[in-house]
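Here is one chain, start to finish.
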Amino acid sequence: MQFGIFTVGDVTTDPTTGRTPTEHDRIEATVAIATKAEEVGLDVFATGQHHNPPFIPSAPTTTLAYIAARTERIILSTSTTLITTTDPVRIAEDYATLQHLSNGRMDLMMGRGNTGPVYPWFGKDIRDGIPLAIENYALLHRLWREDVVDWQGKYRTPLQGFTSTPRPLDGVPPFVWHGSIRSPEIAEQAAYYGDGFFSNHIFWPASHTKQMVQLYRRRFEHYGHGSADQAIVGLGGQVFMRKNSQDAVREFRPYFDNAPVYGHGPSLEEFTSQTPLTVGSPQEVIEKTLGFREYAGDYQRQLWLLDHAGLPLKTVLEQLDILGEEVVPVLRKEFAALKPAHVPDAPTHSSLLARGGAHDTTVPAVDDVTGASPEPSTAATAPTTLEVTK
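Its structure:
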């Protein structure tokens, strides 16, 4: 089981002081948080990709390459890489380069993005979001596995005799997760290729995460990549901890109430009761996180969001200390004891290399133009118990 943190890189005013960090502050804080995550023994650090204010991670490979030079062990990932508005050739080249610079300490999560105005900035239309995600990833998948690619699609210029450079480290393509808050099509895409599925697991009730993960597991088995319980699943989540619940709630409430993503909506108490958000003691975080397994099954990666809503860097680093000292060691032991022997660990570069280069390179026949699967599944029903959108 891998444990780590992810950031969306928001620049948000601290509601308790009125101070807004500069973009430079947030970029430096991202590096400090990543290096601290390694220091306290976490396994993964992931950064988002945004091209609009108030966010700063517009160049994730640049940031991750710098962090790679400052760290030795931690896996570097994304949350998410925009497969819709980023050219798949650019993704293939940039992340293969990062793979070399980090000596294989990286993977990436693909997502389509939900910010409408961003699409036309890159010559795209959000109404094409799902077809773009399907076609672009079909091309990316080939670029990392074929030395010479001839390709023609709908959304970019054709390729003739094209070789993406550098080639993947050791001939092993980076492992890919497909991340989503609410898109069953993305879960289907992950299952089709035998890739990992990362359920964002924030903003939405547990019932929705259960639907999405179960859909992915069923389709993973349908496409012949293994049994449903062998599918590679990651979960997100949000935590804020102090020694006791009262202190945690009192300190975090003004940040929650004013957060751009969920402020001025459901109360903190409603949100923590109906979503994975945990605001309380380390023991409460342990118990709630262990409970994720009850509806998601045995899974391979748990990432938490810590540095959002204007929280000061000092507070974020304190949360990391608590995670590393009091929470993750217990969760490692408990999850390891519960994990069946036939359920795989999260893929890494070394494990993929040992298996011959991929988690599972056998995929069903795919349409050359659309990349669509021959048997697309029915979309899962959206949750109605708590209508919170990003």
